[in-house]
Design goal:
Layout (H helix, E strand, L loop, with lengths): L1 H24 L3 H4 L7 E3 L2 E4 L8 H12 L4 E5 L5 H15 L4 E6 L6 H11 L4 E5 L5 H8 L6 E5 L2 H10 L4 E4 L6 H13 L3 E4 L6 H13 L26 E2 L2 E3 L12 H7 L7
Helix pairs in contact: 3-4, 5-6
C-alpha cells in the first residue's frame, strides 16, 4: 500500500503538519508558503463523457447547474473511442449556452496515439479549447502532437527530472502541478523551476475533498507565478466531505479559507463514516 500510495500519503502528512504549524502560530497556511499574493484562484469544473449518457444530455444539464453556481469555465475529458459522444456533448453545450461557457482543457489523459490525438484535436478544437492536456503516455509522442496542432500542450509534472525532460524536448507549453502528489514543498520547487524557464503554470487536481482543495488554494494564493486558471473543483464534486464547512467557491473562483492553518475544521463523524480500507480483497 505504501509503495502504491506513498507519494499521496506523504503529501497528506505534509499538509497536516503545515496545518498544525499554522494553527500553533495562528496564521493561514499560505503565510508559511511565502505570503499571500491573492485571495482566490480561478478554477474550471470537470466534465466526463459516460457510456450511459450517449447523447450527452446529462452533461448539458450539469453545465447549466454549474453556471447557476457561478462556474463558467470547464475541462472536458475525452477518449479515443468516444469521439462521436464527445462531439455531441460539446455541440449540445455550445448550442444551449453559447458564449456563457468557456472550455479550458481538452483532457486526453494520455490515452491516445499521437495520430489519434492530432485527429481528435483537429475535430474538437472548434468548440473553443484553450489547451490540450496530456495527449499521449509517451513524451516523444506528445512532442509529435505538439508539433502538429495549434493549441498549447499542458503536461502533469511530478518531478524536477520530468520537468527538465519536458523542457529539453520542448514537449509542453504549460506545466500542471499537483499538491497531493509529491506535496507542498515539492510543488513550490516546481513553480520556481517553471518561473526560471518561463513555462506557464496551473495547479492540477486528483479530484480532492475539501482539505486537499484548501491546500491547493493556499499554494495557489502564495505563489506569484500562477498564469492560468486551475483545476481544484473537488470541493464541489462530492455529496459527502470530512470537514464541518467545505471550501467555498464564488463566481468560478476557489476562495482562500479563513482561519489558521488550512482554515477548515475536521468533521470527526463524517470522517468515520467515509473511512474505508485502501485495498479490498
Amino acid at each position: 500500500m505504501v509503495r502504491r500510495y506513498g507519494i499521496s500519503i506523504s503529501a497528506g502528512i505534509e499538509i497536516a503538519l503545515y496545518d498544525l504549524r499554522g494553527r500553533l502560530l495562528g496564521v493561514p497556511m499560505c503565510y508559511l508558503l511565502g505570503g499571500r499574493f491573492r485571495d482566490r484562484i480561478k478554477v474550471c469544473y470537470p466534465l466526463f463523457a459516460t457510456a450511459d449518457d450517449p447523447g450527452g444530455e446529462r452533461n448539458v444539464e450539469r453545465v447549466g447547474r454549474m453556471l447557476d453556481l457561478g462556474f463558467d469555465l470547464f475541462r472536458y475529458y475525452c477518449g479515443p473511442s468516444s469521439m462521436d459522444v464527445d462531439e455531441r456533448v460539446l455541440k449540445g453545450i455550445r448550442q444551449t449556452y453559447g458564449d456563457r461557457v468557456s472550455f479550458k482543457s481538452l483532457d486526453m489523459s494520455g490515452q491516445f496515439t499521437w495520430q489519434e490525438a492530432v485527429k481528435a484535436v483537429n475535430r474538437l478544437e472548434p468548440y473553443g479549447f484553450v489547451m490540450v492536456e496530456t495527449p499521449c503516455a509517451s513524451i516523444m509522442d506528445t512532442v509529435r502532437v505538439r508539433d502538429r496542432i495549434g493549441l498549447p500542450v499542458s503536461e502533469h509534472v511530478h518531478s524536477l527530472e520530468r520537468a527538465r525532460l519536458l523542457v529539453e524536448l520542448k514537449a509542453a507549453d504549460i506545466f500542471n502541478i499537483l499538491v497531493t502528489v509529491g506535496g507542498l514543498e515539492h510543488a513550490r520547487k516546481l513553480f520556481s523551476f517553471d518561473e526560471i524557464h518561463d513555462i506557464k503554470t496551473l495547479i492540477g487536481t486528483t479530484q480532492e475533498l475539501s482539505i486537499g482543495s484548501a491546500a491547493q488554494a493556499h499554494l495557489g494564493c502564495a505563489v506569484s507565478y500562477l498564469d492560468l486558471p486551475s483545476d481544484p473543483a473537488g470541493g464541489r464534486l462530492y455529496r459527502e466531505d470530512v470537514v464541518v464547512k467545505r471550501v467555498y467557491y464564488q463566481d468560478g473562483y476557489l476562495m482562500l479559507p479563513d482561519g489558521p492553518g488550512v482554515g477548515l475544521d475536521l468533521d470527526e463523524t463524517g470522517l468515520r463514516e467515509l473511512t474505508c480500507p485502501l485495498y479490498r480483497k
